[in-house]
Design a protein that fits this description.
The protein is an alpha/beta fold and 223 residues long. Helices cover 42% and strands 18% of the residues. The chain has one domain: Rossmann fold (3-Layer(aba) Sandwich). Its EC number is 3.1.3.3.
């Protein structure tokens, strides 16, 4: 059996790119927002189907965001307070900093939530969607291009180029079908507490709950 870590051993620096919702954090942000709109159950069902690969991600995101129309944008302050980091995030980041590796976040969720998290943790690279707002309320639309599976792969490629890190030295971590493109592009793909379609496609699968379970595996592989 081929060692999935073998190729990483030859690179001095790595780029770790992680999905956010249900990977880097313990929640699906769209569902936290939808709870305030009274549409959480409907939105959660669509999210689950999209993460299993049963629905087109961009179309499913538009449908879910449409249920938020008219909701005051200030609810994002409450949502931020509800978000918790996945166990082991701080340990993973500490190891990456100690070894000189780069870390980035890519999300089908929203900059409004992901950016403060990244800033607080010293993560420079973030790619996510934005919620359109008018007169202090959500319009029910996404502002700008939707970050779907293809968008995540583009982000990984761009972040690697900015850090002058070859694609073979990148690690992509995800849990849903919209992570598959970036995982296929990366040197090592890691399914974390993932849907079956993702776990079956990844180089390695970690069941959770700790995301830093990846660290001892990388230490062992890199000597």
């Amino acid at each position: 059996m081929t060692d999935p870590f073998a190729a990483l051993a030859g690179y001095p620096r790595l780029l770790i790119v992680s999905d956010v919702d249900s990977t880097f954090i313990g929640q699906e942000v769209i569902e936290l927002v939808a709870r305030r709109a009274g549409t959480e159950e409907e939105v959660a069902a669509v999210t689950e189907a999209a993460m299993r690969g049963e629905l087109d991600f961009a179309a499913s995101l538009r449908a879910r965001v449409a249920t938020l129309a008219g909701l005051p944008a200030r609810v994002l302050d409450e949502v931020r307070a509800d978000v918790t980091l996945t166990p082991g995030v701080h340990e993973l980041l500490a190891w990456a900093a100690e070894e000189g590796h780069a870390v980035a976040l890519v999300s089908g969720g929203f900059h409004e939530i992901v950016d403060p998290i990244a800033h607080s943790l010293g993560i420079r690279y973030v790619r996510a969607n934005r919620l359109a707002v008018a007169d202090g309320r959500f319009t029910g639309e996404v502002s700008g291009p939707i970050i779907d599976a293809a968008g995540k792969a583009v982000a990984l490629r761009q972040f690697a180029a900015r850090e002058d890190i070859p694609l073979g030295a990148t690690i992509a971590i995800g849990d849903g079908a919209n992570d598959l493109d970036m995982m296929a592009l990366a040197g090592l793909s890691v399914a974390f507490a993932a849907k079956p379609v993702v776990a079956q496609s990844a180089d390695i699968a970690l069941p959770g709950p700790r995301i830093d379970d990846l660290v001892p595996l990388l230490r062992l592989a890199r000597g």
